[in-house]
Amino acid sequence: MMGCLTCKRCCVAIVIVIVVILIVTISLKYSRRPSDKCYTKAAVAADAGTCSEIGRDILKRKGSAVDAAIAALLCVSLVNAQSVGIGGGVVFTIYNASTGKVETINARETAPMGASENMFGKDPQNAKPGLFIGTPGLLRGYELAHKRHGRLKWKELFEPSIKLALDGFQVGRALALAINETSDKILNNAALCFLRFSSDNETFHFDYNFSSSSVSTTENKILTYHRMIEAFRFANVQKTKLGDPVINKNVTEIVKRMTSESLADGIRNKIKDDFKQTSYYEQEDRDGVPEDHGTSHLSVLAEDGSAVAITSSINNYFGSGVMSRSGIIFNDQMRDFIDPELTSGHGKNNLIKPGKRPLSSMCPTIILDKHSKQVKMVVGGAGGTNITTSVAQVILNYLFFGYDLQKAVKEPRVQITMNETGIEKNFDKSITDGLMLKNHIIYPNISFQYLSVVQAIVREEDKVCAESDHRNYGYPAGY
Questions:
Q1: Lowest-confidence region among 85-99, 196-210, 302-316, 443-457
Q2: Between the CA atoms of 396, 398, 399 and 403, what dihedral angle is there, to the nearest 10 degrees?
Q3: C-alpha closest to that of 182 among 472, 4, 448, 386
Q4: How far is CA 16 from CA 13, 22, 29, 181, 342, in A?
């Protein structure tokens, strides 16, 4: 009992120290953010500036884009341990400039071989945390990506993060806020109390001919956001039909239909410019997508033109809350399956089966210029079910609306549920008012825990520009 009380006092003291450190150092931290985010050769954009710098240094040592991505994400596992780590999983999208080929490596967690649909019993909310751990895939994913595309030795990718761990690092605001959000989880978990702190590809065709004129006036912008929000809702309904294609053989046909122009035409015809729909489901569609928060994305564009978009997760903040003796925080990805006992509805393609990967909203994206075939944009995000819509908004902002990259990422975004539209602080009130006149239900000021975070790199003629989302207080690095 005394040990537990001591542990709790220790955790409270840690949180207090973190807050004090942040108050003293936050202005210094922002004064160090690089003001020039365009480079001549290469860039890395992670959600933690130190990790962007580690990735950049790997590139400067002639490491590959994959080498830089692995080294940078290992760093993120330390400084943003609430979101990512080797106890989780990862998805790579890799563009090899020498061959012109793109590949995806899906190393997400899988259900243990002893898992079953009824494994959580009649009271899943009170199930033991260990039951929610999926078999981690991250290290296997790193290994495969390095085997195919690595240049530096395997151990060299780990050395910067090992040094960072031994030397210690200042807790960033993202980690501090996550600790505050989950303080009850930490204070009641003896394992987490001993954490030591110191100072499947989707394509939709929306033929609205979006351009800079789409946001040139208040009236145009209201209509554009209305159409965009409605399209997102219809797209989210389609997303709920997905599942692991290795287990569910019908998913391939579902994806084929989802990416067809005929489906896009059908959705576009259902969207009415004057009012919000009351239903977005087809008759058979009543599935849901589980929410999660603990995710990280980083983007890499190397000097040779190769690129990596990589998204990794342990699911919710600090995953399952279970930590190994060696300090690995394990995921709780089993929550990403829709179990009949866990939710009001369930998707037949996302039920628990041994060896199966759960449904995910990860979308690490690489966009090529259709003429030069060079990388135009590397982008992806974190933020649970809002990842896809947040990434789409950044892409639209940059490629269609004519915003510069910083504005494209920084612009306040909408985040949607099936019937409500969340808006970030400082979102244009005139647009909000216009959306309400079209029957949109608006809720303002999305809390930190639910914000999506996007990292992006673009090629602009002879420059490489990068942006790490200010919402997670990171910054990019390049040369």
A1: 196-210
A2: 110
A3: 448
A4: 5, 10, 19, 14, 35
- Rg (C-alpha) for the chain, rounded Å, is 22
Q: By three-state DSSP, how is residue 427 classified?
A: coil
Exposure string (b/e) for 40-71, b if CB count within 10 Å is 16 or more? eebbbbbbbbbbbbbbbbbbeeebbbbbbbbb
Residue 167 zone, left/alpha/beta (φ > 0; ψ -120 to 50; rest): alpha
Among 37-46, 399-408, 438-447, the range scoring the smallest mean pLDDT is 438-447
Helices (H), 32-88: 49-60, 65-79
Is 70 strand, coil or helix? Answer: helix
Q: Say how many C-beta atoms besides its own lie within 10 A of residue 238's C-beta.
A: 20
| pLDDT value of position 10 | 40
Please report the pLDDT score of residue 30 as a whole number: 36
Long-range contacts (CB closer than 8 Å, 24 or more residues apart) made by 181-186:
181/317, 181/448, 181/449, 182/82, 182/317, 182/318, 183/11, 183/15, 185/317, 185/318, 185/321, 186/11, 186/318
Cα dihedral 400, 402, 403, 409 in deg (nearest 10): 20
- Rounded Cα distance, 101 and 96, in Å: 6
| Residue entry with tokens 């959705």 | 267
Cα separation, 392 vs 414, whole angstroms:
11
Residue with tokens 């690092």: 169
For 252, phi then psi, to 5°, come to -60, -45
Q: Show which residues are catalytic.
A: 295
Q: Is the CB of residue 65 less than 8 Å from the CB of residue 300?
A: yes
Q: Which residues contact 234 (CB under 8 A, 6 or more apart)?
A: 267, 270, 271, 280
Q: Distance between terminal CA atoms of the chain?
A: 54
Tens digit of each residue's pLDDT (9 = 90 or more) over 15-73: 333 333 333 333 334 334 444 599 999 999 999 999 999 999 999 999 999 999 999 99
Q: Which residues contact 296 (CB under 8 A, 6 or more apart)?
A: 46, 47, 73, 76, 80, 83, 84, 311, 312, 313, 382
| Total length of the chain | 479
pLDDT per residue as tens digits for the range 238-295: 888 888 888 888 888 888 888 888 888 888 888 899 988 877 766 444 555 555 556 8
Residue 449: pLDDT band (50, 70, 90) is: low
**Which pLDDT does position 262 carry in this prediction?**
85
Closest CA to 201 of 114, 127, 309: 309
Q: Where are the beta strands (DSSP E) in 211-341?
A: 294-301, 307-315
Query: What does DSSP say about strands 43-45 and 477-478: parallel, antiparallel, or unpaired?
Result: antiparallel
